[in-house]
Write a structure and sequence with these properties.
single chain, 125 residues, 0% strand
Length: 125
C-alpha cells in the first residue's frame, strides 16, 4: 500500500488541524508584533519564539521586507468592517486620536534617533 492511498493507517504526515494551529499561532504572533511598541518588552507568549525574533530583525533592517512578511501571514480572505467616525462614541474617537498622536510622536523620536546614529560614525573620521 502506498502512503497516500485512501484507507492508509500508517499515519504518515501531519495530524489533522496541526497546520491550522500553526497558522493561528503565526497570525497571532504577527498581529501582536504589529501592535507592539518598540520600546516595550515582547509579550511573554511570543518573547522566546524565533518568529518574533525574525520579525524584530526584519523590522530593524528592512521595513519594506517586514511589511511584505506581515502581509504574507495574513489570511487570504479578509473582511473589513466599515465604521465611520459618526458611528463611534466620543470617548472612542478621543482614544483613537490620542493613539494616533502617540504613535506619531514615537515615529518622530525613532527617526531622530536614526538620524543621530548616522551622524555619530561620520564624526569620528
Amino acid at each position: 500500500m502506498h502512503r497516500f492511498e485512501q484507507g492508509n493507517t500508517l499515519s504518515w504526515g501531519r495530524p489533522r488541524g496541526s497546520r491550522n494551529a500553526l497558522d493561528a499561532y503565526a497570525y497571532a504572533c504577527a498581529l501582536a508584533h504589529v501592535q507592539h511598541k518598540l520600546r516595550d518588552p515582547a509579550p511573554a507568549e511570543f518573547a522566546d519564539s524565533n518568529l518574533w525574533k525574525a520579525l524584530d530583525v526584519t523590522l530593524r533592517q528592512s521595513p519594506k521586507d517586514y511589511a511584505r512578511q506581515i502581509i504574507s501571514m495574513l489570511p487570504k480572505q479578509v473582511s473589513f468592517e466599515n465604521v465611520t467616525a459618526r458611528e463611534l462614541a466620543d470617548e472612542e474617537l478621543g482614544r483613537l486620536i490620542e493613539a494616533f498622536r502617540q504613535r506619531e510622536l514615537e515615529l518622530r523620536e525613532e527617526r531622530a534617533l536614526g538620524a543621530e546614529m548616522k551622524l555619530i560614525p561620520n564624526a569620528a573620521h
